[in-house]
């Protein structure tokens, strides 16, 4: 079985999730590159890509623009003529929210919402709002654009639950009893202070409390008032997003590292996704230290004494890291069974250009392997 090629074949949406800094953006771009070269036209929607990766994808500017990567560039990286087009975009959260309001808010509310100070800090202040807008964008791209494959990267801070709960949280925020209370005319007129309200420890209350002293209550009340006209739309699309994530043609790729301290986080992600009935293509374990090849040990033996000692010390250190990683990998395989594991080695250099993405894809697609002894199941 080759889990990643299988998933690319049967899916038209791939979502890369996992803890921060593990290689989600790298894996997302790799999947889209490979899909396109092999004949499935793709779009990778990246979130906060490293600058050099963005440059090599031709994404110099922010702003949700879908950019086609020229075929000769794909050909040079892959050593073959691409059979379909690859597109890439950088999701600009603020711009995506603005577009949503521009497209969906009633005409007389648009400017009021866009100009509201509470709204302007929404994307940073409202937990889950980045995850929400990423999925909203995914839905829009899926429905309105004809890409045979969309690969979605996820925000660096995303936790599995934030990601899956985002639509509900936004709905909760808009429809919460406490929030409704805020819409009472007296409050909307700014006559009552926030302190008079006993909002308890709800999500809404916590969110609102972040604004105390920064935003006036009046602004918040106005914001809620204007947004309430969009509630039905939010609810409808929350259902659509959920349906898209649960569709047979959507697969999740969980990206993680082999380090013991990240295992719990990865296993938690894995469990949460399965509990939510989402289809897991594979757990990609990135940056695995491969064991030192036997040839290097024999070379080292032939070196003059002083040098040999130093080289052997380095090789020992590498071997230590490799066996530590092998233990992490074995543990992950056990805890995530029967989801297959796919290993990518830690490369000497960052993965910032299309050639190194292509090289990475050889590991993802089962054409190259790390020697780490994976326990047989
Ligand atoms: N297997 C690897 N070997 C070496 N460097 C890697 C590898 N995978 C990713 N990187 C580098 O690590 C950094 C973080 O990767 P990135 O994909 O941006 O992670 P995330 O999106 O999960 O935050 C980037 O600079 C990337 O080039
Ligand atoms: Mg990233």
> How far apart are the first and last residues' alpha carbons, in Å?
13 Å
Q: Which ranges are low-confidence, i.e. pLDDT below 50, for 5 or more consecutive residues?
A: 191-200, 373-377
Secondary-structure content class: alpha/beta
What small molecules does the structure contain?
A: adenosine-5'-diphosphate, magnesium ion
Gross CATH architecture of the largest domain: 3-Layer(aba) Sandwich
Q: Categorize the overall geometry.
A: elongated
Indicate the multimeric state: single chain
Task: Spell out the key features of this protein.
eight-stranded mixed beta sheet; 55% helix; alpha/beta; single chain; 377 residues; elongated; binds adenosine-5'-diphosphate; Rossmann fold
Brief sketch in words of this structure:
The protein is of the alpha/beta class.
Can you give a write-up of this model?
The chain has 377 residues and is an alpha/beta fold. The chain folds into two domains: 17-250, Rossmann fold; 261-351, no CATH class. Helices cover 55% and strands 11% of the residues. The protein has 19 helices and eight strands. The chain has helices at residues 3-10, 24-37, 51-56, 71-78, 93-104, 107-114, 117-120, 122-125, 129-144, 160-175, 177-182, 185-188, 203-209, 217-227, 231-246, 260-275, 294-301, 305-336, 354-364; strands at 13-17, 42-46, 67-69, 86-90, 149-152, 250-256, 280-288, 341-345. It has an eight-stranded mixed beta sheet, with helices on both faces. Helix 6 (107-114) packs antiparallel against helix 14 (217-227). The relative contact order is 0.16. Residues 191-200 and 373-377 have low confidence and may be disordered. Bound molecules: adenosine-5'-diphosphate and magnesium ion (MG). Magnesium ion is lined by residues 24-25, 47-48, 153, 156.
């Amino acid at each position: 079985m080759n889990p990643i090629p299988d998933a690319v074949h049967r899916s038209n949406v791939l979502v890369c999730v996992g803890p921060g800094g593990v290689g989600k953006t790298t894996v997302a771009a790799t999947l889209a590159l490979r899909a396109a070269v092999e004949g499935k036209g793709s779009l990778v929607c990246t979130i906060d890509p490293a600058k050099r990766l963005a440059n090599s994808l031709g994404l110099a500017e922010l702003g949700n623009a879908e950019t086609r990567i020229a075929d000769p560039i794909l050909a040079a990286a892959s050593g073959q003529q691409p059979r379909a087009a690859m597109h890439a975009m950088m999701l600009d959260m603020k711009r995506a929210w603005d577009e949503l309001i521009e497209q969906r808010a009633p005409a007389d509310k648009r400017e009021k919402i866009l100009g509201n100070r509470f709204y302007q800090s929404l994307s940073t202040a409202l937990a889950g709002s980045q995850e929400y807008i990423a999925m909203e964008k995914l839905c829009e791209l899926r429905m309105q654009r004809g890409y045979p494959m969309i690969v979605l990267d996820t925000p660096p801070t995303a936790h599995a639950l934030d990601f899956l709960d985002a639509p509900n949280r936004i709905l909760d925020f808009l429809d919460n009893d406490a929030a409704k209370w805020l819409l009472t005319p007296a409050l909307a007129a700014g006559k009552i202070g926030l302190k008079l309200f006993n909002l308890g420890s709800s999500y809404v209350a916590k969110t609102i409390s972040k604004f105390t002293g920064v935003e006036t209550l009046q602004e918040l009340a106005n914001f809620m008032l204007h947004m309430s006209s969009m509630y039905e739309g939010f609810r409808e699309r929350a259902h659509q997003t959920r349906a898209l994530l649960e569709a047979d043609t959507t697969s999740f790729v969980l990206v993680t590292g082999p380090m013991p301290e990240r295992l719990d986080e990865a296993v938690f992600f894995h469990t949460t996704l399965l509990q939510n009935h989402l289809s897991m293509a594979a757990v990609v374990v990135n940056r695995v230290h491969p064991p030192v090849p036997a040839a290097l040990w024999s070379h080292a033996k032939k070196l003059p004494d002083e040098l040999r000692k130093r080289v052997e010390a380095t090789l020992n250190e590498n071997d230590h890291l490799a066996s530590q990683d092998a233990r992490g990998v074995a543990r992950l395989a056990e805890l995530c069974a029967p989801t297959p594991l796919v290993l990518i080695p830690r490369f000497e250099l960052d993965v910032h250009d299309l050639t190194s993405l292509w090289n990475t894809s050889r590991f993802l697609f089962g054409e190259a392997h790390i020697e780490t002894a994976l326990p047989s199941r």
